[in-house]
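Fold it.
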Amino acid sequence: MINAIGSSSPSPSPDKTSLASAAALAAELARYQRQLSDCINCSSANTPESRAKAQALSDKIAATKTQIDKATTPDTSNAVAQNNQSNQSATNLNSNHASNSVSANLGNNVNVFA
């Protein structure tokens, strides 16, 4: 996997179980959409019972779409925190190394061109 420059951890991606559950949810979503289409296009579509059923199916469709989004969207909050922590550690190491190398090399250089 390719990491971004300066990134010590790979970018998060959905795991296989999330993708499998997203596939199952997509099948469920298609079923609800077919049922809603049948409910809307039936001869009794204007009855209160049919409208209530259509509303319930619409709510199920919205909830299923939300679940699919959650299953396929990686959780980046943990990865961002880890990346910030590793960047802070790298900054601390670089500043310590720079201060040590300056004091260690002070007075050790000899001008050979003089």
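The radius of gyration is 29 Å.
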